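JOB MANIFEST
job_type = single_chain_structure
chain_count = 1
residues = 79
[input]
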Amino acid sequence: MKTILAGAAVVAAIVTMTASADAKGCLKGAVVGGAVGHFAGHHGVLGAAAGCAIGHHRANKAERQNASQPQRSTTGSRY
């Protein structure tokens, strides 16, 4: 149990240090997917790979949605 907590602490530290990585969503998805895969039948690596792919897809989808919405002007009139 101590090794699981120590591993989780190391992973959390790495994720917070590399939050601005180019692989948006991959790190968070890999951590969650790895943990779920580990507890669902010792398939942590497979879960991490799937979590990375899903997290990256969702981050790209959110970025596209934010880019397609028109930006509000702060210097124009109110009416």
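[summary]
The chain has one domain: 2-68.
The chain has three helices and no strands.
exit_status = 0
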